[in-house]
C-alpha cells in the first residue's frame, strides 16, 4: 500500500513539497531501494509523462529518512528528526509482510514499532493527522454470520500490556496467549488490535485517525488494473485455484467476503487525510475510525467470486497448473471438506509416494515429495489461513466516510481524483483483473490482459447450474443440494401461520367486505353464507408453499434437468441484481417469457439454487383437475386463477386482494405477461389484467415501489416440440391430465440441448411512471383520449395507460434478451432454401449471418461465439434431424415437406426474426415497390427488371410503414420510436453492407444483384406472415353478406391456406399456422375491415359498398409476399377471384 500512496501523491499532487519515507537497510541502501521502487511497472505512467527527468524530479520530492520500526525512536538520527518536525500528515502503513508471522515478531513490528512512531510524531509541531492503517479484522474475534462491526473501539478481553510483555523476544510464548491469538484469523489482525489499543492509550495531543481496510486486492483502475505485489487471503485462494491445488472449500457460497481494490483504499486514506481538519471530523471524539470495506454498501459473495476466478483460470491456465479445468465447489461443513480433500488429494499423493518407493525411482521419489508438500500446504492454507474467513461473516459499517465522499462528489461534476465510491465497482471486471494481476505479477507469467468481449461473454453466459462439479467432490450431491441449499434463506409465506394470516387479511379487507355486503343485499343472502363461499374460493385459489416439498422437488428436478438438458446457464449479473433487491426488502415481480410448461419450474429452481426467496406463481386452473400435480404445484408456490373474472365480483375482489397482500408481505410474485404459452417461438402481445392488479398496490400508495424483473428463457429445443405443430395446424389442444403426464415420459430420452436464462434489469414502476409522465408533459409521447398530462393516479385512464406502456416495456426487454442460437439460424436458412442447400452453402450462410449479427450488436451472443460457423451448423443440424433429410448426391440438405416439420423449423426461426425485422421490412417493401413498377414487364424479364429498377425512397418508406402496420400484432416493437430516424438508420445500414445502393442525393435506391442471398434470407423471414394475412383477405372476399359464424372463420382460413399451399399458390406451409391467421383476423377487426356481431364475422359497411377498397388491400399485401403465379396487380376483383376457383368452395 505504501508504494501506491507514493504514486498517488506524485500523480494527484505534483506540487507537493516533500514526502518523507522511512526506509531501512535491507540488503541494499535506502537510496538504492527507492530507485528500484521508482523503476517498477507501477511508476511507468509517470516515467512516460515526465520523460528522462522523471527520476531527478521524483527524488526531489521524496526524502529518505533512514530508520527501522524495530529500533528505539525508529533509529532516526537527530538531523533527520529535526527535518520531521514540520511534518503535517503521518501515514503509518508499515507492517510485517507475513500475516502469520510468529507472535513475538509480529508484536515487535506491528505494535511496538507503532508506539515508537507515535512518540516521534509527538515532536511534530504542525501535525494535523496521524493516520494508522489498521485492519477491519481487529474485531474478527466476534464469530458468527452477519456480524455487524461499527466504526468504534471494541474493548479487549485481556490485559494489553501483559500480553505485549509476555510476547517480547525474551519471553517464551505461553499457551494462554496462543488461545487468545487463535480467536483471530492470523497474528496480523491480532497485533493490529493490540496496536490500536496502544495508540489510543498514548494518543494525547495527537490527532489520531484509524483506517481499517478489509482484504486488500490488486488495483481496480489506477494506475492500471490488476497491479499487485502481495496477496490477501482471497488472493491466495485464487492463486491455489489457478495452480489446481484447491477446488473444494467448506462454507456458504452466499456468504459475504469483503475485498477492496488497493487503489480505491488509497483514495479513501488520502481523502480522509485531506479533509481531516474539517468540522465534522473535529467534532468527533478522537480517535476517528473509518472502515475501508465493501460489505456494507456493495457486498461480494464467496460463490460468485470463486466461480468468476475459476472461469478466468479455465480460459488462462498457468503453465505450472496441475489442471486445465479450474473449478470450485463449496461444501457445507469442514468435515465434508476433510473427506473430499482426503479422497481427491491426500490418498492419490500417498499412493504416488508408495509406488515411487516400490519402484525405487529417485526421480519419482523427488516428485512424490513435491506433491506431498504441495498437498499439505494446500490443506494447511484452507484449514488455518482461510477457514476463519469462510466460517464467519462480518459486515463493516462505513457511514463515517460518507460525508467525505459527499464532499468529493459535490466538488466537481466529474469523478474526483480521490473518489472511492465502492458501489461503482464492477465485480466481474475486477475479479478478472484480480486473477490477471496474480497471474502476471505474482506468478511472473507473460499473459494477455482479459479481453472485454471475453469478460462480457463470461458475464452474460453466466454459469451452468447443472455443472457445479459437486458430483466430483461429494457423495450424494443431489441429496445434499436439496437439503442444504437455501437453509439460511427465509421464503415469505412458506409457513402455515403466515398463509393463514394472509388469508385472514384478504377476507377482512375493505374491498372483500364491501363486495360481500353488496352481494348479500343484491341476492338476499346472509353475509356469513357469502363469506363461507369466499373462503372456499380462496382455498381453491391460494398457494400452500411448503419448503420440505420444495426440497423434494429440487432433488427430483435436479435429476430431470440433467436428463433433458446439457446445460442451464443463468447470467450472473442478473442474479446479483436480484440479491440487491432482496437485501433492500423490495417488492419483486418476476415476469418470464412463456414458451413451455418448463418455465413454471425453472424460475423457482434457479432462485432456490441461488439462495433467494421463492416466488408465488400465477397459474391457470387447467391443472386443478389433476389432484396430485395440483398439490405439488400449490406446495411449490403456485396460486390459481380463472382465465376470466368477468361478472364474478367476489372472485375478482378475492383474487385482487390476495395478490396485493402477497406483495405487501414482500412475497415475490411470478406471472406470464403473454398469458399463455407461445407456440410459434416468438413473443405474444402482452395481457394487462394481472399487471393492472399488481400496479393497483402502487397507485393506491400501499407500496412505494414495485420492481418488475423481465426474464427470457431461451431453449435450444422445447419439450412441447411434438405438440405445438399439431395445435397450430388445427388439432384441438389436449386437456392436461395425469395420463398425459405419464405419456410424456418419453421426453426423458430426448436431447433438448441447452437453456440460457437471461435475467434483465429490474424495472422500477416508480421510476418508469415518472419517466413516462415527463415524456407526456414534454410532448414526446402520444396519449389516448382521457389520459391527462400529469398522469394522476386517481384517473382510471391514466392507470390503464401506464399499465399498457409497462406491459409493452417488459415484453420488449424480454425480447431483447433472446439468445442467438445455431438452431434458429440454421432453421431460417433451411426455410429460405427449403428445397435443398448444400452443406458448404449452409456454412457460408452461417458465416455471413454470424458477422451480420455481431455488427448489429443486439441480442445475446452466448451460443453464437462458442464455435466456428461449421461447428455451429453441425450443432443446428444435430438438433433438427427430425425435420430434415439429406440427398446422397452432393450432400444436399432438404426440409421435410411435412407441415409439422416446417412448423417446428419456423418456430425456431421466429425466435430471432424480430432482431432482423427492420431490414426484412425494408427489403420486402423494396420488393413490392419494384414489383409494382415492373409489373408490365413480361414474366421472363421480370427478375431482371426488379434488379435494375430503382425505387424512390419516399415510396419505399410508405411501403415499409405498411409492412409495420400489417404486422403490428406479430412482433414486439420498441414503444414510440422515431420512425423517420429508424427508417433512415436501417437504409444506411443496408447501404453500408452493400445490399442496396443509392444515388448521390440519396433519393433513389437500387437493390444490389450481388446481394440476392441476403435479400432472400431477410425477406424469407416475413413472407410467411404476409402470406397468412393475404390468405385471410382472400377468405374475407367470400364472406356471405350476412356473415359467417365466428367459430368457423379460423377453420375456413386454415382450410384455404392449406389448399392454396397444396396447389402451389402459397409458398409457405407455415402460413397455415392458426396463431398467425387469428392475428390477421384481429388486425382486420382493429382496422375496421370486418366486424363481429351476433356471433358472426362480416365486412364493415365501407368494404361491402366498395369492393375496390378491399381488392386494393389484397393487392397491396400480395405485392409484399413471395411471388407465386399471381403477379398482376391491376386486375379487378372478378379477375382475382377467377385465379382461385377454390374460393367458390367456401
Structure, briefly:
InterPro entries: FAR_NAD-bd, GPAT/DHAPAT, GPAT/DHAPAT_C, GPAT/DHAPAT_LPLAT, NAD(P)-bd_dom_sf, Plipid/glycerol_acylTrfase. Keywords: Acyltransferase, Membrane, Transferase. The protein is of the alpha/beta class and about 1150 residues long.
Report what the structure shows.
The chain is an alpha/beta fold and 1146 residues long. It has four domains: 2-231 and 259-296, NAD(P)-binding Rossmann-like Domain (Rossmann fold); 492-816, Glycerol-3-phosphate (1)-acyltransferase, CATH 3.40.1130; 822-892, no CATH class; 897-1146, no CATH class. It is built from 47 helices and 32 strands. The strands form ten sheets. Strands 15, 16, 17, 18, 19, 20, 21, 22 and 23 form a nine-stranded mixed sheet that branches. Strands 3-4-6-11 form a four-stranded parallel sheet, sandwiched between helices. α1 packs across α11 (262-275). The N and C termini lie far apart (85 Å). The relative contact order is 0.05. Mean pLDDT is 86; it is low at 935-947 and 1126-1130.
Amino acid at each position: 500500500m505504501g508504494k501506491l500512496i507514493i504514486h498517488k501523491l506524485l500523480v494527484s499532487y505534483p506540487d507537493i513539497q516533500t514526502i518523507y519515507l522511512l526506509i531501512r537497510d535491507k540488503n541494499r541502501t535506502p537510496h538504492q531501494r527507492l530507485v528500484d521502487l521508482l523503476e517498477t511497472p507501477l511508476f511507468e505512467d509517470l516515467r512516460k509523462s515526465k520523460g528522462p527527468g522523471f527520476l531527478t524530479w521524483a527524488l526531489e520530492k521524496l526524502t529518505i529518512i533512514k530508520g527501522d520500526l524495530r529500533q528505539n525512536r525508529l533509529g532516526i538520527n537527530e538531523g533527520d528528526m529535526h527535518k520531521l518536525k514540520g511534518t503535517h500528515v503521518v501515514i503509518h502503513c508499515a507492517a510485517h509482510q507475513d500475516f502469520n508471522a510468529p507472535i513475538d515478531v509480529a508484536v515487535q513490528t506491528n505494535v511496538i514499532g507503532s508506539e515508537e512512531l507515535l512518540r516521534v510524531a509527538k515532536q511534530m509541531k504542525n501535525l494535523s493527522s496521524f493516520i494508522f492503517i489498521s485492519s477491519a479484522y481487529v474485531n474478527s474475534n466476534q464469530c458468527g454470520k452477519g456480524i455487524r462491526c461499527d466504526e468504534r473501539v471494541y474493548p479487549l478481553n485481556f490485559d494489553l500490556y501483559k500480553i505485549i510483555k509476555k510476547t517480547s523476544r525474551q519471553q517464551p510464548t505461553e499457551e494462554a496467549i496462543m488461545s487468545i491469538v487463535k480467536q483471530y484469523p492470523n497474528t496480523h489482525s491480532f497485533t493490529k488490535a493490540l496496536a490500536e489499543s496502544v495508540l489510543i492509550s498514548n494518543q494525547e495531543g495527537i490527532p489520531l485517525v484509524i483506517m481499517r481496510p478489509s482484504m486488500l486486492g490488486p488495483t481496480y483502475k489506477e494506475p492500471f488494473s490488476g497491479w499487485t505485489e502481495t496477496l490477501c487471503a482471497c488472493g491466495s485462494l485464487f492463486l491455489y485455484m489457478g495452480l489446481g491445488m484447491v477446488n473444494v472449500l467448506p462454507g456458504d457460497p452466499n456468504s459475504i467476503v469483503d475485498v477492496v481494490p488497493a487503489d480505491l483504499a488509497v483514495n479513501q486514506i488520502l481523502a480522509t487525510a485531506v479533509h481531516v481538519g474539517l468540522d465534522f471530523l473535529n467534532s468527533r471524539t478522537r480517535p476517528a475510525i473509518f472502515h475501508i470495506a465493501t460489505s456494507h454498501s456493495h457486498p461480494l459473495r464467496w460463490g460468485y467470486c470463486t466461480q468468476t476466478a475459476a472461469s478466468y483460470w479455465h480460459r488462462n491456465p498457468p503453465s505450472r497448473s496441475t489442471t486445465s479445468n479450474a473449478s470450485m465447489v463449496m461444501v457445507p461443513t469442514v468435515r465434508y471438506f476433510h473427506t473430499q480433500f482426503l479422497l481427491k488429494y491426500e490418498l492419490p499423493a500417498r499412493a504416488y509416494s508408495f509406488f515411487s518407493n516400490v519402484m525405487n525411482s529417485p526421480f519419482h521419489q523427488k516428485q512424490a515429495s513435491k506433491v506431498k508438500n504441495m498437498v499439505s500446504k494446500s490443506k494447511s492454507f484452507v484449514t488455518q489461513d482461510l477457514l476463519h474467513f469462510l466460517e464467519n461473516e462480518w459486515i463493516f459499517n462505513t457511514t463515517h466516510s460518507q460525508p467525505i465522499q459527499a464532499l468529493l462528489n459535490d466538488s466537481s461534476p466529474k469523478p474526483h481524483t480521490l473518489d472511492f465510491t465502492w458501489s461503482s465497482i464492477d465485480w466481474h471486471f475486477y475479479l478478472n483483473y484480480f486473477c490477471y494481476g496474480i497471474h502476471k505479477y505474482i506468478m511472473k507469467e507473460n499473459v494477455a490482459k482479459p479481453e472485454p468481449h471475453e469478460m462480457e461473454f463470461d458475464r452474460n453466459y453466466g454459469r451452468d447450474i447443472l455443472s457445479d462439479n459437486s458430483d466430483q467432490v461429494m457423495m450424494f450431491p443431489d441429496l445434499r443440494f436439496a437439503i442444504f441449499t437455501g437453509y439460511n434463506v427465509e421464503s415469505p409465506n412458506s409457513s402455515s401461520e403466515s398463509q393463514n394470516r394472509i388469508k385472514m387479511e384478504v377476507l377482512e379487507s375493505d374491498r372483500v367486505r364491501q363486495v360481500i355486503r353488496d352481494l348479500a343485499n343484491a341476492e338476499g343472502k346472509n353475509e356469513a353464507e357469502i363469506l363461507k363461499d369466499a373462503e372456499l374460493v380462496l382455498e381453491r385459489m391460494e398457494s400452500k408453499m411448503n419448503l420440505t416439498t420444495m426440497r423434494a422437488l429440487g432433488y427430483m428436478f435436479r435429476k430431470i434437468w440433467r436428463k433433458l438438458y446439457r446445460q442451464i446457464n443463468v447470467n450472473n449479473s442478473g442474479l446479483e441484481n436480484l440479491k440487491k433487491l432482496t437485501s433492500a426488502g423490495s417488492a419483486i415481480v418476476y415476469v418470464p417469457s412463456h414458451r413451455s410448461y418448463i418455465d413454471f419450474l425453472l424460475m423457482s429452481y434457479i432462485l432456490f439454487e441461488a439462495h433467494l426467496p421463492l416466488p408465488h406463481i400465477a397459474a391457470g386452473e387447467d391443472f386443478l383437475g389433476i389432484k396430485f400435480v395440483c398439490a405439488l404445484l400449490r406446495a411449490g408456490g403456485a396460486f390459481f386463477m380463472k382465465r376470466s373474472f368477468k361478472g364474478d365480483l367476489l372472485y375478482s375482489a378475492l383474487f385482487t386482494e390476495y395478490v396485493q397482500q402477497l406483495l405487501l408481505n414482500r412475497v415475490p410474485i411470478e406471472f406470464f405477461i403473454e398469458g399463455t404459452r407461445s407456440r410459434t417461438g416468438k413473443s405474444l402481445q402482452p395481457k394487462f389484467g394481472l399487471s393492472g392488479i399488481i400496479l393497483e398496490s402502487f397507485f393506491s400508495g400501499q407500496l412505494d415501489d414495485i420492481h418488475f424483473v423481465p426474464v427470457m428463457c431461451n431453449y435450444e429445443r422445447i419439450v412441447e416440440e411434438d405438440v405445438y405443430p399439431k395445435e397450430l395446424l388445427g388439432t384441438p389442444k389436449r386437456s392436461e391430465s395425469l395420463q398425459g403426464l405419464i405419456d410424456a415420459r418419453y421426453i426423458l430420452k430426448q436431447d433438448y440441448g441447452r437453456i440460457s436464462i437471461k435475467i434483465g434489469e429490474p424495472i422500477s414502476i416508480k421510476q418508469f411512471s415518472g419517466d413516462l409522465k415527463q415524456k407526456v408533459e414534454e410532448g414526446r409521447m402520444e396519449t389516448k383520449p382521457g389520459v391527462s398530462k400529469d398522469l394522476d393516479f386517481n384517473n382510471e385512464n391514466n392507470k390503464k395507460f401506464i399499465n399498457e406502456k409497462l406491459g409493452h416495456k417488459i415484453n420488449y426487454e424480454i425480447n431483447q434478451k433472446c439468445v442467438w442460437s445455431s438452431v434458429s439460424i440454421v432453421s431460417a436458412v433451411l426455410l429460405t432454401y427449403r428445397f435443398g442447400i448444400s452443406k458448404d452453402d449452409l456454412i457460408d450462410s452461417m458465416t455471413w449471418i454470424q458477422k451480420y449479427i455481431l455488427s448489429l450488436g443486439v441480442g445475446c451472443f452466448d451460443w453464437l461465439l462458442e464455435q466456428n460457423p461449421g461447428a455451429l451448423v453441425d450443432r443446428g443440424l444435430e438438433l433438427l434431424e427430425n425435420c430434415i433429410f439429406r440427398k446422397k448426391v452432393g450432400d444436399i440438405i432438404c426440409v421435410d415437406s411435412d407441415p409439422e416439420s416446417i412448423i417446428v423449423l419456423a418456430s425456431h426461426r421466429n425466435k430471432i426474426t424480430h432482431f432482423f425485422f427492420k431490414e426484412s421490412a425494408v427489403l420486402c417493401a423494396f420488393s413490392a415497390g419494384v414489383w409494382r413498377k415492373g409489373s408490365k414487364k413480361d414474366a421472363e424479364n421480370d427478375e431482371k427488371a426488379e434488379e435494375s429498377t430503382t425505387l424512390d425512397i419516399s415510396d419505399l418508406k410508405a411501403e415499409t410503414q405498411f409492412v409495420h402496420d400489417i404486422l403490428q400484432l406479430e412482433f414486439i416493437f420498441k414503444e414510440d420510436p422515431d420512425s423517420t430516424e429508424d427508417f433512415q438508420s436501417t437504409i444506411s445500414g443496408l447501404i453500408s453492407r452493400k445490399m442496396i445502393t443509392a444515388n448521390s442525393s440519396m433519393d433513389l435506391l437500387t437493390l444490389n444483384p450481388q446481394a440476392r442471398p441476403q435479400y432472400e434470407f431477410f425477406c424469407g423471414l416475413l413472407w410467411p406472415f404476409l402470406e397468412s394475412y393475404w390468405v385471410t383477405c382472400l377468405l374475407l372476399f367470400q364472406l356471405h353478406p350476412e356473415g359467417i359464424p365466428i367459430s368457423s372463420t379460423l377453420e375456413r382460413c386454415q382450410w384455404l391456406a392449406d389448399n392454396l399451399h397444396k396447389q402451389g399458390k402459397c409458398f409457405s406451409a407455415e402460413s397455415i399456422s392458426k396463431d398467425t391467421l387469428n392475428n390477421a383476423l384481429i388486425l382486420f377487426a382493429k382496422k375496421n375491415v370486418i366486424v363481429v356481431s351476433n356471433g358472426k364475422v362480416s365486412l364493415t359497411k365501407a368494404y361491402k359498398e366498395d369492393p375496390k377498397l378491399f381488392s386494393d388491400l389484397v393487392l397491396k399485401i400480395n405485392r409484399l409476399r413471395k411471388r407465386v403465379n399471381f403477379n398482376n396487380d391491376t386486375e379487378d376483383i372478378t379477375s382475382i377471384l377467377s385465379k382461385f376457383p377454390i374460393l367458390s368452395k367456401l
